Amino acid sequence: MKAAVLETYNNFVWKEVTTPEVKPGEVLIRIKFASICGSDMHIFPGDFHPRTPIPFTPGHEMGGVIEDIGEGVSGFEAGDKVAIDPIIWCGKCPACERGHYPACTSLKLLGVDLDGGFAEYISVPQHMVFKTASHLPNEHVALVEIYGIGFHANNRAETKDGDSIAIWGAGRVGQVILQAARTKTQNTIFMVDPLDKRLEIAASHFENVITINPTKENPVDVIKKHTDGKGVDIAFEAIGHAHEFEGVPTPVRACIQSIRGAGKVVVLGLGDDPAPIVFKELIWKEAKIVASRVSHGEFAEVIEHLNAGDLKPEALISKVMHGSQIQQAFELVQNESQNYLKVLLDFGS
Q1: Which residues contact 82 (CB under 8 A, 6 or more apart)?
Q2: Strand residue runs (E) in 193-281
Q3: pTM above the 0.85 mark?
Q4: What is the pLDDT of residues 130-145, one digit of tens each?
């Protein structure tokens, strides 16, 4: 089969490799589309070294069609359209013993810690495979994983009907948090981002979304104005490496300032820099800060909403390129990240 192998950092090679053998308990999947993730953009130049075992095949957002099933597999058959959950947990650490797998101390992912889905085929254990409706476009199946992050964040926040929300960051993760939230509440959602193009994507696809560009106005002031000074029920920080703007609080602190009393802040951004906050602002509100990492069984929830047409995957897809063009695709996103949300790689549509 053909696969996109990261031979050295910053250098993909489209090459012939051995097609994986389907083992007992596994499912062999013909990858249709895989999606380039923000983490992939860090893997590409070596930011995850030595975690990533180059040379290897990245790709952890993927979907396809079952080609073959191994001995002992039930509930699947050749031709089924499926998404693949890339998370591998140990099952033995204190978090796993409590059933909280995203906090596994040795958590691994297909396409990060071992070969993934930037290839024509992949064979994975049955429990990592989730069937979708046959009518779902193959492109959309590849987005189940990132949607899982958005739904998991909302589940960590316990988003419910009537909640008002603010989301710092209108990139890939911010957009799926928005879309997941819209399946749970129709109340006002504020989107904060310095890129007007990303704000427009959010506002043009959903009603009752108020966009805020922090280079033009203070997000906390805008949110307080629209909520009669009370603040929102939940604020999500989905930025990571944040740029500072004069007169505007840093994202996590701004989230705290923007919530109501007893509200919640959910932090997803994986920035390496300290995030200054004033804890008394949190304490005065007796509010909560909650972290959200990957997903925790939300694939079924995502697929249910995708099958029903409740989500808007086309809002996320900026470009589709063939798998053999992976080097050009990564360089494109690397050099013009502000112009792209999700770039999909076609491995056999």
Answers
A1: 27, 29, 63, 64, 65, 66, 76, 129, 130, 131, 132, 141
A2: 209-212, 232-237, 259-267
A3: yes
A4: 999 999 999 999 999 9
